[in-house]
Amino acid sequence: MGIVTDWFRRHLSDPQLVFLTLLLLALFAVVLTLGNMLAPVLASMVIAYLLEGPVGFCERRGLGRTASVLVVYVGFLLFVALLLFGVLPLLSRQVTDLVQQLPTMINEGTRALAELPGRHPDLVTAEQIDEVIGALRAEAVAFGQRVLSWSLAGVVGFITVLVYLVLMPLLVFFFLKDRDLILGWFRQYLPEYRRIADSVWAEVDRQVSNYIRGKFWEILIVWAANYITFLVFGLDYAMLLALLVGLSVIVPYVGAVVVTVPVVLIAWFQWGWSGEFIWFGAVFAVVQALDANILVPLLFSEVVDLHPVAIIVAILVFGGLWGFWGVFFAIPLATLVHAILTAWPRWPAGGDQDPS
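Below the sequence we write its predicted structure tokens.
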């Protein structure tokens, strides 16, 4: 009990640590309780944070703040328009085609599985294959029910998307244009004792900005590289699968493994055990290897090198708390924890030094 009392006396006697602790608790409480309501605001803040890099680049080239914001903002709107009117219709058609072809693919897969006991009786039995086929059919039925529920909720989803399309561009513009004004307004309510909090923020700002911008470019590059590869081979649903591969980089290690399954399965349904299938698998593996061994070190050279165990734990914890966005921001949040632990004062064990 004395050890716990001594720990609290050391740390809670420092007003800077008290402020940092209360600030973090307040931020987590806001996200947990008001995260859904404030989702457009939080998403707009992330986008503005992402665009701050190009704005700073334009300012360093001699443009004023307002002109830089306008140039970057127009580019952002053009990018969004390209996604909405160029990519989304193609994705919608490919998703529809894939859903229509799923029963045929499942039948072909079950026939291939049913042949395994005859070819490899020592490895699998007919009973085991029947269990697998039953599980696959149950999953197919469940997937069809989920698709139906998505279609029934489509009106609500469409209205939500419209709200996001109207609100978020406005919020992004004002977050960029009035960044200093907004930050100054918040700073006037902060206490004087915030040196440690400022140190943590400076480290997190550097690391997270590098990570988010690097991850954005990695998604685009991996998406484009795989789309070109799939088009060259004539793979069905090329845009949809390339987008899935691009988004898979959000989840290190796990994402690449998970997304490989649908890509390989669709390639197998299209070509079977042919030379084209083998060549496609080899090229796909090379593209994945180039991403992991060349692109990632190039884009994230300045990001804290977190241990793989720390990354996986962060994905599990924050993904469990906030779903998709928790997974997306798992590494930035882990970086925040790392920065806090780095900035937190340390004293010799058993010592009684003044933390100030």
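The chain is about 85% helix and 0% strand.
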